[in-house]
């Protein structure tokens, strides 16, 4: 859990940024790296000049410039919480980024509502960074379409491999009466998850957990109505190089974790529940019509694929032709919805009667 002073500092910051109509849509690490490199190569653009420069692109700046970006009281609270730090050059930096939680699409549901912001790791990312970016935006957009797969409002929602909880927070805001859980292995992500939930006025319980291991027994016994996940899906490195926690999807071209989530999720899913997985699928250059993830989902016992939508046909093109992706032509990201196969449910009921 974040300290009270730290949470208060984030609240003061986001309140000020909202008044200033701050906007920053977080790009991919590749894009941010290019922008920052170009800005840093020119002395006239290397330093932050406004709030997006400082809290979005994470450029440094002087105390004088910061006074034009945030009030002194907000600066003091951020310094005390080590959210803003200083270096030997007397330049200040932000240890976090602040991004729009939702893409600023029009028409918006409530044009007068204050924008919702999301706190995540600074750039450049480290091995335990709390990721937020294009995948998160696509994941949340897909979650906004899944109500048609739910016969009624869920009473329990679990976000597996939740990171700092964007999916869990969105579902808790959508279904405030539901018990919402966020599960992840990264303590740093879970800590920021608590901060972001408070900023969104959403009730989410976060647990450090290897997939479903920490789900309370009473929740398992009742069955989970909705399981969602945007797990890591980058294929494990062929040269043994460690990937960041937020990226490493394991074996099978990064599908290992996604498949486990579906298989293990079916064991705790309620009879009318649904599993929603957003993940990346490596498409082989030799067989560009082959989708290994869809093929595997169709073989999951007692499950049926209710929806399978390609959300982006060519994500992370910079990975193609290298390492594990040497023979891959593209990485497509998909949104999959699974529910219990009625025939499998009938077999289970028959088995319970015997």
Please, could you describe this protein's structure?
It is a single chain. The chain has 354 residues and is of the alpha/beta class. The chain folds into two domains: 4-121, no CATH class; 134-353, Vaccinia Virus protein VP39 (Rossmann fold), CATH 3.40.50.150. It is 34% helix and 23% strand. A seven-stranded mixed sheet has the order 7-6-5-8-11-13-12, with helices on both faces. A two-stranded antiparallel ribbon has the order 1-2. A two-stranded antiparallel sheet has the order 3-4. Helix 8 (187-199) links the parallel strand 6 (179-184) and strand 7 (205-208). Helix 1 (4-19) runs antiparallel to helix 5. The chain is globular and about 70 Å long. The N and C termini lie far apart (47 Å). Residues 242-251 and 347-354 have low confidence and may be disordered.
List the helices and strands and how they pair.
Blueprint: H1 4-19, H2 29-40, H3 51-56, H4 63-69, H5 72-80, E1 84-86, E2 92-94, E3 96-100, E4 117-121, H6 134-143, E5 156-160, H7 166-174, E6 179-184, H8 187-199, E7 205-208, H9 217-222, E8 224-229, E9 234-235, E10 248-250, H10 251-254, H11 256-265, E11 269-284, H12 292-297, E12 303-312, E13 328-340, H13 342-353
Pfam family, one: MTS
Keywords: Methyltransferase, Transferase
InterPro entries: DNA_methylase_N6_adenine_CS, N5-glutamine_MTase, SAM-dependent_MTases_sf, Small_mtfrase_dom
Brief summary of the model shown:
With 354 residues, the chain is of the alpha/beta class.
